[in-house]
Each structure stands twice: as C-alpha cells, then as structure tokens.
C-alpha cells in the first residue's frame, strides 16, 4: 500500500494545465489525484508543508550520462540517480555512448536492471542509431524499442555517410522512433575542443566552427523531410541553429530542440586559461550565440533545457585542455541555473518549468511532465530563495567537474517524488 | 581569460608561460637583463654563478634541437645543473600521465622545468600543478605560445632598431599553427610598435585574427610596403597534405621572400626567421644568408635572453 500524500500551501506551477496558484496537491497510489481542489474523503498518511515553496512536475532530463555500464570509476547509477533526485529530476534519457554502447536489447535490459537496483526506475535509454555508434550499420531498433529504449540517437558521434543516416532515419520512422540527433560534422569538427573564435585563436586551441553544427543540422533537416522521421535536435549551441530550426518549424517540419543549461550562461570568454572544467562539446560559443539561444528558448523555438550531465573522475579533467575529456557534471545546477535565467528576465518561471517538464514529456510522448490527475506522481518541490554553495558538502554527483564549483546559487529542491515515492528530501539528506 | 599565474605578489616573474598579461615594464626588464648577459658568452670563462646549486630539467615532449640546446647552454652559463630529457614519445606510450612525469621529477628536487609540449596549455597545466618552489618556463606549447623565442626576437629587433614605437612589423606565413607568431604579436603590441601586419592565405590564418591586434594582408608585395621588420615563419610539410595549400612551389610563388620582393620593404628592413629554415619554400637562400638577414644573430641572442628569463624566474627564490 503506497502512501497517500498531501502537499499543502505551496505555489503550484503546472504549465501544462495552466495552473499557477497557492494550493495543494493530492497523491495516492503513486498517482496525482487532484490539484488545488480537495478530493472527498482524502486522508493523508504524509503531509508536506510547502509554504513559500514551489510545487511543480518532476523534471525530465533529455540528455544524461551516468557512466554505467562501463565507466563506474567515474560515476554509478547509485551516485547519479541520487544527484538527479536531489535536483528534482525524476526521469532521465540516457545517451547511448555507454561501454558497451546501447545497441543491443541486452544492454538496454541491463540498464533497466541497474535503474531498478538504484531505486530509480525512470531511466529511459536512448538506443544507438547505428551499431557501436560507428555510423556504418543500423542497430536493431525494434528490439531496442521493445527492450525499453525511448528513442534512437547518435550521442556525440557524427554520422559521416549521409546514405546511412537517411536509411537509419527511414527505419526509425517505420517503427515510430524519435531520432535524438546531436548535429556535428565530423570533418569540420576536425578534433577541435573550443569554439572557432577569438579565444581559441588567442590560446592556440584546435577549434570547431559553428558551421560544423549548422551543416549537419541542415542535412538532417533535409533528411527529415525526405524520410518523415521525427527529429529532436539535442544540445544545440549556436545562433544559426536556432534560426534554422525556427524556419523548419515555420515550414511545417516536425522537429524540436533542446539546449544544455551551461550554454545559456557561459561563453568562450568565460573560459579561464586552459581550465578543463570549461571543456564541453559542443564548445562554449559567443555572447551573440548565447543571447540567441536564450531568445530561442523564450520564443519557443527551443522548447527544452537539458543538463547534458557528464560526470568525470578527477583524472579525466587533469591535463592540458585539449587532452582532457569534455563535459560538465550538471544535474545539480540545472534548476538553480534555470531560475537564474528567470531572475535575469530571459524567460518566465512558467517557461523555465515547462522547459524542464512539460516539453520534454511531449517530445518523448510520455504521460508525465504535468500534475494532471491520473498521471504518475512525479513532483518536485523547491525553495526558489534558498542560497547554497556548490561544494563538497552539498554535492551528490561523483563528478565535481563543473565551472560553477564554489559558486553560490539560488534555488534548491526540498522534496522529489517519483511515482508517489519520496526519492529525495533535503531535511533527511 | 587572463591570469596572474606568472607573476608573484610583488610583480616578479615566477613562471614564464606566455607574453599575455605581462607588462611592458617587465618585458623591458627582461631585455635589459639579457643585455647584461650578452658579454658572458664572449668571455674566456663563459659562466656566471647566479644559479649555482640549482637544478634545471629540460622536459622536451616534442623534438627540438635549437631551442633545447640554447636552453641547455643558458642554464650551464648560469652555473646550474642541467638535465635534458627527450620524452617525445616514451612516457605517453608507457601510459604515464604528464602529471606523473612531473611528480617523479619533483621528487628529485628540481628547481625549474623548461617544458616543450605538443599540446596547447601544457606548460600552464604543469605550472598549476607543480610544487610551489618550482618555476616553469614554456619552451613552446602546441599552437599557443613560445614566449622565449618571442623575447629573443624582440631583443634582436631592439639591438638593431633601438626603438619599438615607429616600427611596422610583418609576420609572414603559417600564423594559424604558429605559437611563435602568437607570442611575437603579443610582445610587439605590448612593447608598442606602430603596426603588426600578418601576411598569409586565409587557410593559414586563425579565425578573427585581427582580435590579436594585427592588420591582415593576403598579398605579399602589398603587405611588405613600409615594413621595417620581416618575420618569416616556417612552413610545415603537412600543410600540403591537409589541403591548406596546393603545393610548396605555389606557396613560394605567392608568399616566398625573394630578393626582389624584399626590395618592396623599407631599405633598412631586417629579415628574421625562428628556424629551422625551409630554403626555397618560405625564403630564398640569397635572402636568408643576405645582408639584411639577422637569423644567426637571433640564435646567439637566444642564449642571453634565456639566461635573463631563467635567472629572473628564480628571483623569488632568493637568487640575484
């Protein structure tokens, strides 16, 4: 018998149902029973006082790496699901570049098992679009879908051969599979590690032009029209990508896009000399790109924000910048940095919460991301005014590779419920 | 990105990693100190006891003859104990990390590392992670910086031209891949020349090169007008195979410095080259060995300038 929960006195923000008012959320049997209006004869086992806090749908992260299977020296499902819960993230899409790659049903099943064992079942593997992500042969997409994969994707691996991309998209479309595509052209990427701009020029860093992204994006848009494959572009990083996606939507193509939270706050100019914490792919770009990404989010061209969480061990980031591994450990900064966008008037609170819940759910066609009665009770409660410092005492991810280390951020999750089960409570932690 | 890693609280040189962020005063002090060491090499006993009892390790993760030799000589003339290690391929192929190599050498009570590495930022990384008493001198990191080369070039320019203010300097060739060019541009601008001009095809120029504080030309004869100092850069063979240039001969035709093109520059223009020279590719032999060439002067000045930088970087340790 699962707990009946009454969350009271919180500011309920549920963009999907256009709710923003002080009130209660009632949960029973792991599902939302009612919002605002008290159901008849509801007796709660647990009452959570959410006064001066915000109650919203649990967050859905479209791109994470948890490092298992294969790289448990960096992080584990146990450590990272705890970090996710503490960040209000109640569902996550796992990128396929695990070791081994998610290209067989066996690996997908292993991931489901690891998730269950960690007590965090809502992990959705993304299947590799091609075997071993090598871009040569199609993966067994149907078997992968049946084993629980929510979409197919290329992770960070460029697809060099457009004929193979075309066929993979056709095949994915036949099984109504969403393609989660990170656009990057292999040749133009040229093993770079920084944006091709003034900073890379000054520091002699191998660079990646924004055209490496926009050309691959263009090609994929053309193939989306040809194949009618549903495409979601992940972690876009530059101005012209926003423009192209906006145009494609206007033209009637069914495509969507997300942006990694750090791209909305950092640019090439923030990179401290050779500080590997800033080594990310796609690279941090210019101020103009950042502003366009923010506008794209505010205007609805980019609907979702992801963490693009990539925890690393210390050694992976210990070296000269180009030789270190890219990526930021970013689950735990996802909400405070989104709230910072709200504080900076780049987006509204409603947009921020929708970008973390309603929109990713819609992209994945999941009945989540809203406090709709009957939906799984995935709920995040947070104190938007709580200041905290990004440091060892407050950090749960195994990876401490973040440019925000030691910084003070505002906004902290106090409770997270996944299907009605409390997976995080700030008091208890 | 700026940093103060290189100077201590008193503004004294601690590491020498890049020209960026160093003041005109400090660069001038390096040149003045180098001046005082020029005589040392001409003496019967070519040594001063400034770094006696100090241990300097030349860590060359990338091959080099000239730079390593002049660093070695400079250290010896300062009476330091010198160990030169070529670890071009060995340690990485054994799987040892850069940091492990450094830690092992630290354990041998080293006072200074002179580092050359193929990756941009390697010297910074070592300076950030090495024991606090150790100084790090960058002898070239990837495409980022080669500040001692730039300073010996500044020294040579000052020797001949005396004053930086009126000078127009052209840097010709592969700016994109050149750590030497990046450091030269920063040094020339810090010392206050009238103009730094880069001359190269677009394929050999980095994005937004003008943000480095240079004017740009894609045409050698045009670019050479009014120039006081010509700095030629070495062209690596692999630039042809990576489709940056069609051929050596076409490059020579467009950007090779010949006697007739040299005449376009000011009559008293000097010709410099950090070496090693590709004769007939970037420069004609007649020019390389000609009256206006100061290439060998650059090499001899390399010792005095490196002596100056090494001794100054050791100052915070109570030397001098």
Give the key terms.
heterodimer, A: 429 residues, alpha/beta, TIM Barrel, eight-stranded mixed β-sheet, eight-stranded parallel β-sheet, 12 helices, 18 strands, 28% helix, 23% strand, globular, B: 320 residues, Rossmann fold, 2 domains, five-stranded parallel β-sheet, four-stranded parallel β-sheet, 9 strands, 14% strand
Write up what this structure looks like:
The complex is a heterodimer of chains A (429) and B (320). Chain A has 429 residues and is of the alpha/beta class. Chain A has one domain (58-364): Metal-dependent hydrolases (TIM Barrel). In chain A, 28% of the residues lie in helices and 23% in strands. Chain A has helices at 77-86, 105-117, 141-146, 162-174, 186-189, 198-203, 211-227, 239-251, 287-299, 334-343, 349-356, 358-364; strands at residues 5-14, 19-28, 31-35, 46-49, 54-57, 59-64, 89-94, 123-128, 151-153, 179-181, 194-195, 207-208, 231-233, 255-260, 304-306, 379-389, 408-418, 421-425. In chain A, strands 1, 2, 3, 4, 5, 16, 17 and 18 form an eight-stranded mixed sheet that branches. In chain A, a hairpin with a 4-residue loop joins strand 1 and strand 2. In chain A, helix 4 crosses helix 7 (211-227). The radius of gyration of chain A is 21 Å and the shape is globular. The mean pLDDT of chain A is 97. Chain B has 320 residues and is α/β, with parallel strands linked by helices. Chain B folds into two domains: 24-146 and 300-317, Aspartate/ornithine carbamoyltransferase (Rossmann fold, 3-Layer(aba) Sandwich); 147-298, Rossmann fold. Helices cover 38% and strands 14% of the residues of chain B. Chain B is built from 13 helices and nine strands. In chain B, strands 7-6-5-8-9 form a five-stranded parallel sheet. A four-stranded parallel sheet of chain B has the order 2-1-3-4, sandwiched between helices. In chain B, helix 2 links the parallel strand 1 and strand 2 (81-86). Chain B is globular, with a radius of gyration of 19 Å. At the A-B interface, helix 6 of A face helix 5 of B.
